[in-house]
Amino acid sequence: MHQAVITGTGVYTPEHVITNAELVEAFNAYADLFNTENAEAIAAGEIEAKPHSSVEFILKASGIEQRYVMDKEGVLDPTRMYPRLRQRSDEEPGIMAEIALDACNKALAQAGRKGEDIDLVICAASNMERAYPAVAIEIQKLLGAGGFAFDMNVACSSATFGIQAAADMIRTGSVRRALVVNPEITSGHLEWRDRDCHFIFGDVATATLIERREDAPHGFLIRSTRCATEFSNNIRNNNGFLRRTRPDGVADRRDMQFMQEGRKVFKEVMPMVAQHILGHLADAEVKPEELHRLWLHQANKTMNDFVGKKVLGRDPEPGEQPNILQDYANTSSAGSIIAFSKYSDDFKPGEIGLICSFGAGYSVGSVVLEKI
Q1: Residues of the chain whose pLDDT is less than 50?
Q2: Ranges for the Beta-ketoacyl-[acyl-carrier-protein] synthase III C-terminal domain (predicted)?
């Protein structure tokens, strides 16, 4: 049985930034347009007026200050409020494969590897740009990798589930080196016209390179992985080829975008995540006080603070639980990998950390790492 080691990570960050102030200005302009166009129905009590958003509301609700996006103009157009991403020809690389390739090349460079060294690619993300062929196989071709590739979707937990799948295949000897890549263009499935969630997501791509320990002179040993799921409708997106229109033929369905019952999610998911991590640590024979760092899913600062306190039994010290969501916002499965990539260079051999992601499903995945 082989041991699996993370030897490189890469992060692709889009060039466009939307600050909270810019987003609020656009959203409030949209709300004013909507209220003007529907003034009679609003006055008659047939529909509700759209309330304004504010920078203070966003910051208090999430801890987010800005987000990176693939397209800024379309999102900030009050008459549109979603990104303009051009339709590509079948002969061109898909947009997810394109940004994934950037993240993969950075991970490979960090480890001193090349695309042809890879024999497994897993594209693990919350939404795919097409049903088939698999985006992972396109990434495999662009990299010049061998072996095989496949897509995986476990919503915000896709990255940790992908790491477990890749690590298991390395342990059993079926592959030697694997790339788990998370191209998250979350701006495409966010309802930017909904005040309760219009600020949540941002775009990014991350990649994690995993190898056999005998081939890895440095990196993080994957000591243990654990995944769990429990079905819930409280985070959902109904967009798919089986659901194109409503029975009346109208295509603009609210449930075809990201939807969640935020308070229910917090109440139900947070205890689940804390218990999952503590159980995983116990089985891996790691005491909470031995953890040097927690790299958590970057959904909401309050959520991370809750999990950190439950796991450590106290408020985390600065640096023990780094947040990147103030800059990146929620990037679905990529968030915990961004945190790991940016806040792991200071680890000394023998120090232990834990990556954890959680989200729709419900799903939660955790990875115990030890610096070698």
Answers
A1: none
A2: 281-370
